[in-house]
Predict the structure.
Amino acid sequence: MKNTKELHALVTAVYCINKTNGNEDKNITNLCRYIFLRCINGNPNMLDILCSGKTKEELLPYLMQILEEETKYKKFMEKQAHE
């Protein structure tokens, strides 16, 4: 797998977005939790606390900052916009 160093930030963003606005998909939550616990040696419990009661709009600036600092997601999206 290439770019595995980006995996933690990407799964964090998906997990947090999924936990907002009361629209949680349990399958996505379970898959992300599995990735955190089994693949990247992370712990999603703190994310549960941080995301609790937050809307997507409240979390998105923080998540975008993480993605910008730890991945090439922004560059990818800019490239996609020009295609």
Summary: Helices lie at 7-19, 26-39, 45-51, 56-70, 73-81. Residues 11 and 58 are 18 Å apart (CA to CA).
